Amino acid sequence: MMRGLRTVAIAFLIAFSAIGSAQQLSSSLGTATSGIAINSVGGLPQFLGNDVRLRWLVPGDIELTSRLTSLHYDVVGEDLGDGIRRTMTSREAIDGRILTHHYFLTDPGDASAHNTVRLDLDIPAGASLELSGEASFVPEPLPGFGALYGKVLAIAVDADGQQKLESSAEISAERSLVPGDWFGVRNRFWTGLLRSEAATLNIQVDTGQENLPRLIVMPRRDVSRMQLELYAGPIESNGLSAVDSKLSGMMYAALWEWLRALCFGMSWLLTSVQSLVGNVGLAIILLSVCVKILMSPLTLVADRWQDSVNKTAAILQPPIDAIKRQYKGEDAHTRILAVYREHNVNPMYAVKSLAGFLIQIPIFIAAFDVLGEGFLLNDTSFLWTQDLAKPDRALPLPWELPFFGAYLNLLPFLMTGVTLFTSWIQMEPSLTPELLRKQRLRLYLMAVAFFLLFYTFPAGMVLYWTTNNVLHLLKIQIGRWRKGDDSAREGLSSRK
Question: Could you tell me how far CA 160 lies from the centroid of its own chain?
Fold first, then answer.
């Protein structure tokens, strides 16, 4: 879900660098206060306030499907000491058989059990189960690049992590899942999942309708009962791991393991800071400060490499420009190589500045994923922003603009303004006027590109990068003050 967004962002970075160098299960049936509610009509659970449904399906028999869906059940509850069991008994027989289902909540006081339930279902002959997301499960569509946050996926989760399940537009795909493996649907922040506790399941996947995937559980003909476990709740690391350690594979699923570890570390830092300050927006600002401090050794190395490249370019550029004006082709190339040899410089010296930048790319990726997928941001307000998981929407526009949407987002303007001001005051004394002009032009173009990229991104992400840009501006300004003080001291010393 995040891979396309992250690829676009990193493409901008590398290109310009290369140029420059829920709820809980109800104790009384029918009163849903959690992620899973049990319905006495149909006998099957509903997920996440009916956003995800589990239905009966009898292929080729519409009448029996309708009977199973509308079948009424009597319910008896039993306290087992270490949990609660609900026994549901159908009021009518299906094919001469009364259906009996059992639901188990293992520990009502356990936070990890609030969005989970175990099922022991009586399966009529020929019946299957259909798990699907409703239209209400589809996230609000965002304009521009933010549209990629609006996907609903059919997924499977096993020991190797999350896999996206797909079918063609015409043909449903089939897949077998062994006991313990999960399958279901997810959007950006929420998921509804099932897993078998005893038997291998055959799953038919239908993703032909965009954002409305269907997963059909097809038991073997000789199976009369099916044991399942359900999870319906947020895609949040601690909650998922408490249910099953494999479910943590849903977090940052498109990344390599070492990058995922970095994301988990940054997510932990954000959560820890938020628990101290009690405000998510302020926590994002402080996260940017913390990351800036932790990254300072690498940033110092990158700055030194960039300074070295700038000084070398300032020495080489005048004679190289003169050669290019007077000579062409192979003759010019030979003379330029002679200039490199004269100053004992490798022609690939500029790669050093790119390498200094690339060592910071993993932090960019981690921040991008953590703030893009972070459940902590969902439905959380800060200043004028109503939801940090969406663009800040400071003011409505009189009309909707293609790509930009129907709102004025203020944070991207602030972020870009800080970047442009920093580019304007950033004077590298070692650079020639021509190199300084090219550097500023590159920074201006990067600022515009990132404005387009981030304009429709979540406000929490833009807040982080705005803070990061402000910190960079402060660093540049402090450096200028120090250089001014050093120059003043040198002037006093020379007069003495």
Answer: 19
Is residue 42 within 8 Å of residue 54, measured between CB atoms? no
Q: How does pLDDT run across 358-392, given as a tens digit for each residue?
A: 777 888 899 999 999 999 999 999 999 999 999 99
Can you tell me whether residue 234 is helix, strand or coil? strand
Q: Which CATH number fits domain 36-254: 1.10.357, 2.70.98, 2.60.40, 3.90.550?
A: 2.70.98
Cα–Cα distance between 468 and 1 in angstroms, integer?
25
Token readout for 411 is 């944070």
User: Is the four-CA dihedral 254, 258, 261, 267 of positive or negative sign?
Assistant: negative
8 A C-beta contact, residue 118 and residue 227: yes
Whether the model pTM is above 0.90 = no
Q: Are 183 and 155 in contact (CB under 8 A)?
A: yes
The ranges of the chain annotated as CATH 2.70.98 are 36-254
Check whether 32 has a pLDDT greater than 60.
no
CA 376, CA 5: separation in Å to the nearest integer?
20
- The per-residue pLDDT for range 116-149, each reduced to its tens digit, is 888 999 998 889 999 998 999 999 989 988 888 9
The whole-angstrom separation of Cα 143 and Cα 444 is: 24
CB 232 within 8 A of CB 52: yes
